[in-house]
Amino acid sequence: MSIHKNQPKGLFLLFFVEMWERFSYYGMRALLVLYMIKFLQFSTEKSGQIYGWYTGMVYLTPLIGGYIADRYLGQRKAIVIGGILMALGHFTMAFPALPFFFSALILLILGNGFFKPNISTVVGSLYEQNDPRRDAGFTIFYMGINLGAFFSPLVCSTLGEKVGWHWGFGAAGIGMVIGLSMYLWGNKTFLGDKCIKPSNPSKNYYPPIIILSVIITFLVLSAFQFSGYKIKESIPNYVYWIIAIIVLFGLIYAYLSNSKNSTLTKIEKQRIAVIFIMVFFSIFFWAAFEQAGSSLTLFADRETNRIINIFGFSWEMPAGYFQSLNPLLIFILAPFFSKLWVKLGEMGKEPSSPAKFSMGLALLGVGFVIMIIAAKVYQASGPVSILWLCGAYFFHTLGELCLSPVGLSLVTKLAPAQFASLMMGVWFLSSFAANFVGGYFAGNYDAMDHSKFFLIPTTTAFLSAILLIIITPKLRKWMHGIH
Predict the structure, then answer these.
(1) Whole-prediction pTM
(2) Which domain, by its residues, includes 48?
(3) How many other β-carbons are positioned within 10 Å of the β-carbon of residue 185?
């Protein structure tokens, strides 16, 4: 049976909206580190730190955007606000001055916070609790994410690396405008009254105002610091973690203390605990996986032979093109994985969600084993074949398909209805911590032997997979029949 058979029509609107939003995000991400090093003349260490700060904060703000949508705006209005902020951010990036650069990053961080958790929640709202189409629907939605992510480096890297950096950033902005326009055109027709009103409304507007003020102040201070204007001698790394923890538990406390429907049953508490545990393990996956935009891009730029000769014509592939490999492979392999899970389910042999997570971590580790070998080959004989990176991205993609769409679907199944967007924001919190750690780790790329550099994520991935396998029986018990 086709995975798109009898799916809600609204799914396909959200598919294309998310496709264009991801086109804009990944197009900009493909250029970011190279732009900072080659145009802004930042060091590799500083570029890695800014990359980690940006991609980390992009996944912290969904926690706030989910909270505001659940309590004050509704998911549909939050999506529009997020789309507008992100479009403004991409076009601001098209201006070369440094203040525009950091202003653009702040707009993108805030916009993504409103957009990212809420469009996933709207997808989940298209299905009843036990609708068998749900996992297949999220696989289709995930294909939309990766279709945009495939084309964007090809378009934006070509324009950015071959024509001009700001042409590439401008193209990303156009993609965001197209996605927002499609949403405004079709949301009333295809989504009906889904997620228009807040699911857990509040009239106390002080919490979101205070939280947004704190986050914006923190972003501005960080931007000044990275720009070289020292507000203090330094902002310690642990400040990021403290803010994340305070915001997370502050939001949960606000829900529990102010909601009439906040009493959680024992089963609901155990299911929420499972979400937090899966978030914890996701950190290890994404911290390694997100090297794609930093250390793996630098490996492609400096240590990979990108000269392609075709019928006597020589062409150098832009380094950013490698970031299209992952979404291309996902688009090809996602239907296979969806059918595989269904087939195994019919046979009573489908792995549980925690088991799929452990498989994803192990496959990620295999990809980095390939990079260890590639680094040693470079040390011995110079620039390596593009096939090494292709092999690494192949295994990373297999790992991602075992973890990311499964995680999105699992959160919509386990989260209590009144906390749907908040829990989706918690899910994305793993990427905040992971990108922050991964960015600072990537900043050490020039300072370490590269085979030893890639050994660190390899070891972390395998050890995490083993630990998750050990605790999987307990997690399955807490999930209470949800697979």
Answers:
(1) 0.76
(2) 9-479
(3) 12
